[in-house]
Amino acid sequence: MTFFSLARFVAVASKEFLQMRRDRLTFAMVLGIPLMQLIVFGFAINSDPRHLPTALLIQDHSPFSRGLTRAMENSTYFDVTEVISTEAEAHDLIQRGSVQFVVQVPVDFARDLLRGDRPQLLVEADATDPAATSNALASVQTLLDRVLAQELRGPNEWLRSQPPAVDLVVHAAYNPERISQYNIVPGLMGVVLTMTMVIITALAITRESERGTMENLLSTPVRALEVTLGKIIPYVLMGYFQAGLILVAARFLFDVPMVGSIPLLLAVMMIFIIANLAVGITFSTIARNQLQAMQMAFFFFLPSILLSGFMFPFRGMPVWAQHIGEVLPLTHFLRITRGILLKGSDLSMIRPEIGPMALFAAVVLLIGLKRFRQTLD
Amino acid sequence: MRSPDTPPSIDVTGITKIFGSKTVVDRISMRVLPGEIYGFLGPNGSGKTTFLRMLCGLLKPDAGSGTCLGFDILKEPREIKRRVGYMTQRFSYYEDLSIRENLDFVGRMYGIPKRRQAVDEALERLNLKDRQKQLAGQLSGGWKQRLALAACMLHDPELLLLDEPTAGVDPSARREFWEEIHQLAARGLTVLITTHYMDEAERCHRLAYIASGHLMAEGTVAEVVEGARLVTYEISGGNQPELAARLRASDAITQAVAFGSSLHVSGSNRQLMEAVLGHALDPDHRWKEIPSELEHVFIDLMRKEREENKP
């Protein structure tokens, strides 16, 4: 007697495809989620914002401060919306969020500058969204150098030598990963796969027991492995379909550079898909109905999206959150995707990320299959 | 066809299933011969479905042993599944697949040779050929039941386990269904069927009654009625609801049930009952003894089981 019937496996898988096709809502979700997220994250969210509202706090009127004002107005990062004279006003503007930056030229700035006392130029940034400010902040030093080059001429030219004549002080958080479309679009692949694999798998299996069809299926000579694989493989293919959709969009819509090996990425993706399917199967064995399966899927999905480094820079999170993040497969898959696509990492460079992901997959798969077998019994 | 030396289709002893601390099926033994229609009756939650599941290898009994179609129910569930058609209580085919797709899927699960032809024939028998592309979920209750029967018959099983197949089906569809069951049995198929309907129970060759996992009675309809040793009187005329209330208070009367314009009163001790009735009846009440029916017996068995297993 055979231990695995290919015919029965194919029967289960093609039945699953048929149901997938009939279930218009799920099918729309499979297509819609990647597209919607691509549009939202790829187009709508711009993480290199320009024309940020800026207030100038000028406590020393001099040719230098006038030069700085002009330079800032000419840059694309800053729009000088207010010129104020007290620190209280500055504080208020930042707090209300009406400006993103306050640039302060302190009292006696010009005098100290000419004396060679290296006066401070203060830039205060609203760092609640570090991603929004980092590029603008990076441009301040360049801007300042240009102004100084223009103002310090003739007898004052000696001040342009080292150390810099002005001490630039920035109050803002440092953003370790400069998020941009290059970064987000590849990351989306992991997010979409997490969502589809966990939610749809959990739903598909729970539906079968909720509607009582599982009992019928099991009263036939079918084997547990044939049911399991027959139900899973269609969703693996669907996952690859979604990944392909996003990769194509990344390449042709967002011009994301693809430096590394795509076959390597697709191969490693298998481990990631299995890890998420395992979570879906495990949930389906716990949930009594599809609603519960959905709730559990979200319970997994939210930390994945929030703590993996997709939403927020991973190194910007507190240590405990980083520890949780390290457990989640999405964290590692994000690093792998970004590594391969953007930095051209090869297998040896991504190996440290594969290990934890494979371990997660193995442990959860073990739990899931063990529980799954029990429900079949 | 039913000669004493043909091996029984179902032959199990001491089958027990425990869920948590509750014994759902308690040491049930059963022998069903080929070609027999065997009725399995009992109140809701009495363990009928669990017992069927153990017979067809979906559940493993905690104790007991036996064979189904000659295969060991503990060691050879796959051989049994191949030869048994199990129709679940709830419609459990895919509502989002068409009638044809459902039959085709079942055919693939059993690896039926000449599947196309088998499905075509089943559709023809069902008279559903021109609706084969309709989704199963759109069928009415009666049609769903016919589809389910056709699906569990597709692989030509030797034994049919039918779990309340006629629940929620109208009388004419039920009659047709039973006609078909009798034809199948005449061809040698064994049928084990659970039901709540008395008229259906009377159509079985033999039947068993279980309550709370205990086998309470077994045999032909006549044997079961005989075995209960129940005496029943029919009372007509007079104020019946008031009388029924008075009679129920008596220990000698185990049940007093209104049947149309008359009252059926049953008990096991004739002398005691007649004494009670002679005392309680008014002159305008008329009473006579009638033969006890299956329903009287079942209600009585249910009560007995409750008394025996009182905590």
From TrEMBL, chain A:
Keywords: Cell membrane, Membrane, Transmembrane, Transmembrane helix, Transport
Gene Ontology annotations for the cellular component aspect, listed alphabetically: plasma membrane
Localization of this protein: Cell membrane
Membrane-crossing segments per the record: 25-45, 184-205, 232-254, 260-284, 296-314, 354-372
Domain of life, per lineage: Bacteria
GO MF terms, alphabetically ordered: ABC-type transporter activity
Signal peptide: none
Gene3D superfamilies: abc type-2 transporter like domain
Primary localization: membrane
Membrane topology summary: Multi-pass membrane protein
InterPro entries: ABC-2_transporter_component, ABC2_TM, ABC2_TM_bact-type
ABC transmembrane type-2 domain residues: 146-375
Family to which this protein belongs: Belongs to the ABC-2 integral membrane protein family.
Protein name, entry field: Inner membrane transport permease YbhS
Gene: ybhS
From TrEMBL, chain B:
InterPro entries cross-referenced by the UniProt entry: AAA+_ATPase, ABC_transporter-like_ATP-bd, ABC_transporter-like_CS, P-loop_NTPase
Domain of life, per lineage: Bacteria
SUPFAM superfamilies: P-loop containing nucleoside triphosphate hydrolases
SMART domains: AAA
Record's keyword terms, sorted: ATP-binding, Nucleotide-binding
Gene Ontology MF: a single term: ATP hydrolysis activity
Domain ABC transporter per the UniProt entry, residue ranges: 10-237
Full protein name: Putative ABC transporter ATP-binding protein YbhF
Classification of source organism: Bacteria, Pseudomonadati, Planctomycetota, Planctomycetia, Planctomycetia incertae sedis
